[in-house]
Amino acid sequence: MKEIKVGVIGCGYWGPNLIRNLNENHHTSLTHVCDLDRERAARIKLRYPHVISITDYRDLLKDSTLDAVAVATPVSTHYRLVREALEAGKHVLVEKPFTSSTREAERLVALARKKGLVLLVDHTFIYTGAVRDIKTRVVTGELGDLFYFDSVRVNLGLFQRDVNVVWDLAPHDLSIMDYLVGEDPVSVAATGTAHTPGGFEDVAYMTLKFKGSLIAHFHVNWMSPVKIRKIILGGSRKMLVFDDLDPGEKVKIYDKGISVSKPSRNSIYQSLVQYRIGDMYAPAISNIEALKGEIEHFAECIMNGATPLTDGEAGLRVVRILEAANRSLKKDGAKVRL
Q1: Would you give the end-to-end CA distance of the chain in angstroms?
Q2: Three-state DSSP state, 144
């Protein structure tokens, strides 16, 4: 018998993926689905006849048999829905970005802690085999000291009606950076522009600085003729490329880099830069669906009282950067301290 009864609020773009994985997981029992669109909820009911299909989320939260709730709705609704779910004693999995402001995120983190409930933010990429493999290489020092994190996430559309391209696309790579680097940036500067009348920024560039020499750069774009999902990590020993769209070699490690010799007495003002050009190899990466692993992790945290890998604190760190990036955008790229 499955131990955890779960309901899903929001059956739009991402909701069906959560519904499918919650239904298939051997610890979770999908019992409720909720959407304001009655026809959309009915379509889910056709595929999963055993679930209770409703249009008012409050009916779902009133069900005392329900243990957990997954929220897959527009970010502007996250705070209200997650707060009410936590107050109703439900564990919560919430789609990224966590909330629309730092203050909201802080309040939800505090509430989940007070209630002793699991709060997991859906930073799906953290549960991919590729990102977990990269984390191991960073932790073991295979790449050496990290010099830079360079990310490109571009495509043609989908234009959002409630958030700009930074809030839509950057959370993915910000969450990956947060997980891999394990250090908080000290400042952010962002520039961007909108190409539709009265619309949100659809092209943006964001730069994060850290205490040392580490720098991170993000390019997000809804107006690219090609779809690119790529991250480059530069280290003092090796460099790494993560291409999420490459089905065969998602991660490539390059034994390339530079070494700088100290100036000699005869060349006090010059340092000699030497280039190291070595081999490239692509490790075997697990192709298990990331969301499947995330749902399993969510269930285990509920059963064991553990803290999720992508908990509310992780979601808060990403929202804090997004909020600061928005302030920088409004100030035409001015540096904002974090």
Answers
A1: 47
A2: coil
Do 93 and 133 lie in a common domain? no
Q: How far is CA 90 from the centre of its chain?
A: 22
At residue 275, the 3 state secondary structure works out as: strand
Number of domains in the chain: 2
Q: Are residues 98 and 157 in the same domain?
A: no
Q: Which domain holds residue 200?
A: 126-287+321-337
In a domain, 52, yes or no: yes
pLDDT tens for the 338 residues of the chain, in order: 679 999 999 999 999 999 999 999 999 999 999 999 988 988 999 999 999 999 999 999 999 999 999 999 999 999 999 999 999 999 999 999 999 999 999 999 999 999 999 999 999 999 999 999 999 999 999 999 999 999 999 999 888 888 999 999 999 999 999 999 999 999 999 999 999 888 899 999 999 999 999 999 999 999 999 999 999 999 999 999 999 999 999 999 999 887 776 666 666 556 677 888 889 999 999 989 999 999 999 999 999 999 999 999 999 999 999 999 999 999 999 999 99
Determine, yes or no, domain membership for 315: no
Give phi and psi for 81, each to the nearest 5. -70, -45
Q: Is the pTM of this model over 0.85?
A: yes
